[in-house]
Amino acid sequence: MARQVTHEDGLLRVSFNYEPRLVEMVRGVPGRKWHPRDKTWTIPSTQVVQVVDLLLPAGFEFDRDTLELYERHKDLHEDHYTVSRLNAEARAALARAFPAPVWLVGEISGFSKSAHKNIVDFQLVDRDEEGRTLAQVNAVLFHSQRQAIQDKLAREGQPFLLEDEITVRVQVQVELHPEWGAFRVVVQDIDVAYTLGEAARRREEILRTLSAEGLLERNSSLPFPVIPLRVGLITSPGSDAERDALNTLQESGYAFHVTVHGARVQGRETEPTMLRALAWFASRASDFDVVLICRGGGSRTDLAWLDSLALGREVAAFPLPVVVGIGHENDRSVLDEVGRRAKTPTAAAQILVGQVAETMDHAARTCARAIEIVGTRLVAETDRTNGRAQRLAQTVKQALTHAQRDLHHGRHRLLQGARALLNRTRQAQAARVGGLPRAAGYMLGREHTHLDAACRRLLHASRGHIAREQERTSVRTRRLELVHPRRVLERGYALLRSRQGRVVTAPEHAPAGETLVAELRTGRLHLLSEGPDKEQEGEQ
Questions:
Q1: Torsions phi, psi of 32, nearest 5?
Q2: What dihedral do alpha carbons 170, 176, 179, 180 form, nearest 10°?
Q3: Which of 175, 98, 97, 94 is nearest to 142 (CA)?
Q4: Distance from C-alpha of 371 to C-alpha of 252, rounded to nearest angstrom
Q5: Is the pLDDT of residue 74 over 80?
Q6: How many other CB atoms sit within 10 Å of the CB of residue 107?
């Protein structure tokens, strides 16, 4: 079919053999319409200037009516552009600049918001190492291309999903949508190997760095706890991974004490949230035996969020053993290489259950062996003890027999000796009783003499002492009489007392209104105090 344009009934009819580039050019003209039966496009004749300017360089032929219509309308458009013409020519310029699809690398953003639609609009983003956006372009994925890409991923074993925050290499057609004036790229294909290879390259680079720093095997070389019952769990709260790990530990019947710290296990927040969780457990390392990092299954690219140099360093230098269960049997992340790897969260929990069970079995075997050894020794000791008991019984029996015989002989000798001693004692007693009255009389007489002499000495000494004391008492009595207050009263003085009987010796002891008692030589007077003398107080 020749490339040609004809004018019929106010419409421009465009026909050509299928070429994607020409289709994109025609689709950029406002009002275009495709007729599948005739396999032609129709465009309102008002767009004749735009159509001729757009398709003439592409080798299209135009009939006379079209050219005459173009000449009549051309002058009207020489000094200005319409929006439609501007967008169409810009689209044509892009088509000339990018006549064929190009491969574009970028991070998917905004895909999840329209993933349920047949036509998915999203952005492809360039970011720097710190995650800041450098540039972005709008992208569209039509239903047919999307189905083809999903089939391609399925044939590759579904290594990843089309979702936000995944870096991809896609084949795109660059275009400008003429009706909206929107610059965008239309996704046509995807390079599966690029995304997987980039993740693998980044992982290997991180592992080389950790190996050079001597950190790769530091955590895995830590001695594993004998009974790891105090467990820290880092995972997404409420996830299947959390439930699987907790159920495995609970169903074991052992007394595990689990502390769960939530963290993102996929996406851009994975690194900061997991670093915060690891720092929290590290600051309380004495309260835990082991830490589990768990997440459920997913695509291979999901593991890329765990391929972080900062996370690798933190886990490698962590003070407690770290068990990593991330739900992938064949693929490995950086954390798998620096910690103790388990295929799934359940397997990670089973490592702890197995360790406790092994310790319990070892303790049970040790106890059984100890009981066996003790039993054997107890039987041997029992036999030795029984033999010693029999020999001891015979020895005691013999000793008792000899002791009874010796006791019998000793009893006989004791009886005879007691009788002889009793006879001698009776004789000596009789002799002493005969001389007792005479000796007693002598001793009593001597004691009477001593007692009379002592009485005479005591009487003499007592009389002298009493006389001396009577003299001292007389002298003291005369002295007391001389200083008695009555002698003062007899000379005309008075003795003042308060109502309580206390002697008044100072003016302040008798305030105004106080009743006083004055003792005189021949009686008492009751006085009423007017207080201290004011003139005397002024002098003072």
A1: -65, 150
A2: 80
A3: 175
A4: 27
A5: no
A6: 18
Unique residue bearing structure tokens 């002492």: 465
Q: What is the C-alpha to C-alpha distance for residues 119 and 187, in angstroms, rounded to an integer? A: 11
What's the CA gap between 370 and 382, in Å, rounded? 18
Q: From edge to edge, which strands make up the β-sheet containing 495-498?
A: 495-498, 515-519, 524-528
Per the CB < 8 A criterion, the answer to whether 280 and 221 are in contact is: no
Residue 436's pLDDT band, with cuts at 50, 70 and 90, is: low
For the chain, the C-alpha Rg in angstroms (whole number) is 63
What is 419-466 written as a DSSP string?
HHHHHHHHHHHHHHHHHHHHHHHHHHHHHHHHHHHHHHHHHHHHHHHH
Q: Find where tokens 């991923």 sit.
A: 153
- pLDDT tens, position by position, 226-266: 999 999 999 988 888 899 999 999 999 999 999 999 888 77
pLDDT number for residue 81: 66
| pTM for the model | 0.45
Single-letter amino acid code for the residue at 412: H
Task: Judge whether 233 and 339 are in contact, CB under 8 Å.
Answer: no
**In the 3-class helix/strand/coil scheme, how is 153-203 assigned residue by residue?**
HHHCCCCCCCCCCCEEEEEEEEEEECCCCEEEEEEEEECHHHHHHHHHHHH
> Is the per-residue pLDDT at 84 higher than 70?
no
DSSP 225: P
pLDDT in tens, 380-395: 888 888 888 888 878 8
* Residue from 41, 327, 68, 304 nearest 168 by CA: 304
Q: What is the 3-state secondary structure (H, E, C) of 84-136?
A: HHHHHHHHHHHHHHCCCCEEEEEEEECCHHHCCCCCEEEEEEEECCCCCEEEE
Lowest-pLDDT choice from 223-237, 335-349, 458-472, 474-488 = 474-488
* Helices 240-251/345-483 angle, 10° precision: 70
d(CA 292, CA 311): 14
| One-character DSSP codes across 457-513 | HHHHHHHHHHHHHHHHHHHHHHHHHHHSHHHHHHTT--EEEETTSPBP-SGGGS-TT
Mapped onto helix, strand or coil, the DSSP state of residue 50 is helix
pLDDT digits (tens, 9 = 90+) for 504-531: 888 888 888 888 888 888 888 888 888 8
How far apart are the C-alpha atoms of 498 and 504, rounded to whole Å?
7
Q: How far apart, in whole angstroms, are the C-alpha atoms of residue 263 and residue 279?
A: 12
Residue found by looking up tokens 């009886």 in the block: 415
Element (H, E) at 351: helix 345-483
Q: Give 332 or 329, the one with higher predicted confidence.
A: 332
Quick count: other Cβ atoms within 10 Å of Cβ 285?
Answer: 13
First vs last C-alpha separation in the chain: 147
Across the range 126-142, mean pLDDT stands at 82
CA separation for the pair 388, 386 (Å, rounded): 5
The first and second tokens of residue 524, run together, are 């008492």
Checking phi first, is residue 214 left (phi over 0); if not, alpha (psi -120 to 50) or beta? left
As a whole number, mean pLDDT of residues 40-61 equals 87
